[in-house]
Amino acid sequence: MRLRSTRFGTAVAVAVAAAMSAAFAPTGASVPVLMTDNIELVGAFPEASVVAVTFDPLKPVMYATSLSGFTTWDVTDPTLPKALGKVPFPHFSNENVKLGVRPDGTRFVMAGFDLVGYSPDAGATNTRGTNRFVVIDVTNPAAPKVAATVNTTTRTHTMGCANTACTHAYTAGSGGKFDIYDMADIKAPRLVRTYENPLLLGNATFAGGTGHDWDVDRAGVAWWVGSGGIVGFDVTDPENPAVLNSSDFRGQSNQFNKYIAHNSQRPDAELFTSRAKEDVDAYARTGNPNAGVEPRSNVDVDGVRDGEVLFVTEEDLSATGRCSSTRGGLQAWHVQELEADRYQATNPTFDRKKGGTIAPIGKWTTEAAEVNDPWTKGNVAAFCSAHYFDVHHTGIVAQAWYMQGLRIIDGRDPTQLTQ
Question: Which among 142, 236, 156, 223 is positioned nearest to 189, based on CA atoms?
Fold first, then answer.
C-alpha cells in the first residue's frame, strides 16, 4: 500500500505545533524541551490558548480559533506567523475549524460552542452553552467578520462540511442525531433536517451517544467519528447522507473506544475501489464488545490496498494518571468496502452490535505506556491521550498529544505503526 495524498499546510502544521510548545513561556524565558534530534523547535507561536487551526488550500493563510476568539494568520513564513485580523468571542471550545471555499471567492469558517461561548452579534442572548455555532466571513482575511450565529438542536463541539464549498454543514451531533444545515446563504444558515441513526449512539462512557468530528476525504466520503465508533457516509446528496460502512463491534469496545473516537483521515481515498463482496475479509463477530483486544494479526501491509486505511485518534480523558497501551492512541482501521446497498442488505436496522466490516489493523501509543520505560514506568500524572493529527503525502503522521508532546509516526505500514 502507498500513502501519497497530500494536504496544503502539513509542513506548516508541524512547524506551528512544534512552536506552540513554547507558547506559554514568558518572553526571554529558557524553556527546557525534551525532543529527538530530528525535530527542531523554531520559535513560539504569538498567541496563547489556540485550540484549532485550518489552512487555506490556495494561499498561505491560517485560520485559528482560541479561547478568546478567532484570528487569521499570514503563514508565508511558517516559522513566523503574522496576525491579519481578529474577531473576539470568548468560548470553550471549538476543536476543529472548517473552511468553505466558494467558486466566487467567498470564504467562511465555522466555530462551534461546546460548554459556553459569547457571540458578539447575538444581543442580550449572546451567552450560551453547547448547541451553537458561529459563521465567520473570511473572504477578506484581513477583515474577518461574524456572518451568523446559529442555535442548533444537537451538540456543536465541532462542525463539519459536506464538501469543499461547504454547501451544507453538519453538527458533531448527540443522542444518535446530527443537524444538517443548508449553507447557501452564510448569513442565514437553514436547518434542513435532523438526521438520526442508531450507529451514532454511545459506548460505555457516553451511553446517550455523542459525535466528535467530521472529515471529508478526497473521494468525497464523509467520515463521522464519536462514541458510536466510525461511520462513513455518501454525501453526494448532502441533505440525505447514506451509510456506506461502519466500524465492527470494536468501534464501541473498551479496547478501542473507551472514551471517544476523536478524528480521522483516509489518505489516498481517491485511489480506492471497493472489493468484491466475496473478497472482503470480514472479521469474525463474537457479539462481545470487549473481545478482540488486539488489532487483526492476519493482515500485513501487502494485503492492504490504496485508500483502505483510515487513521483514527482515540481520545481518552479517563486515562489521567496512568498511560495504557489500549487507550488514548493512534489507530489504523481497514476499509475494504464502501457500498450503501451492500451495507443496507447486511445490516438493515443499523445494529451497532453487528456493525460493519471496518476493522482495526494497527495502533500506537507513546513509550509512557510501557511499564519498563525508564522515564515513566507506565505512571504519568497527566492526560496520557492522543489528539488531532495530519497525514503527510509520504505516509508520515504528525500527531499532537495532550501532555506527551508532538509525535511523528511512520504510517506507511499501518499494521506496524512506529515512531
Answer: 156
294 contact partners, CB below 8 Å, separation of at least 6: none
Inter-residue contact 153 to 186 (CB < 8 Å): no
Q: Which helix (H) or strand (E) holds 178?
A: strand 177-182
Q: Which of 149, 147, 155, 92 is nearest to 126 (CA)?
A: 149
Tell me which residue of 397, 275, 287 sits closest to 339, measured CA to CA: 275
Q: Residue 91: how many CB atoms within 10 A of its CB?
A: 25
Question: Mind listing the pLDDT tens digit for each residue in 279-319?
Answer: 887 664 444 444 444 566 567 777 899 999 999 999 987 75
Closest CA to 144 of 87, 187, 189: 87
For 202-259, the pLDDT digits (tens) are: 888 888 899 999 999 999 999 999 999 999 999 999 999 999 999 998 898 888 898 8
**CA 131 from centre of chain:** 19
What separation in angstroms does the CA of 142 have from each of 85, 138, 379? 5, 8, 46
Residue 187 three-state SS: coil
Residue 176 CA to residue 224 CA, distance in Å, equals 12
Q: Which residues of the chain have pLDDT under 50?
A: 2-29, 124, 284-293, 372-378
pTM of the model: 0.88
Q: DSSP characters for 78-92?
A: TTS-EEEEEEE--EE
Cell numbers for 218, please give them: 478526497
pLDDT at position 41: 84
Burial code of 225-260, b = ≥16 C-beta within 10 A, e = fewer? Answer: bbbbbbbbbbbeebeebebbbbbbbbbbbbbbbbbb
Map grid coordinates 460552542 to a residue: 113
* 407 grid coordinates: 509525535
DSSP state of 125: G
Contact 352, 199 (CB under 8 A): yes
CA distances from residue 252 to 206, 246, 255, 319 in whole angstroms, order as listed: 10, 11, 9, 17
Q: What is the pLDDT of residue 121?
A: 62
Among residues 148, 144, 183, which one has the least CA distance to residue 163? 183
Q: Which is nearest to 269 in space by CA: 342, 220, 330? A: 220
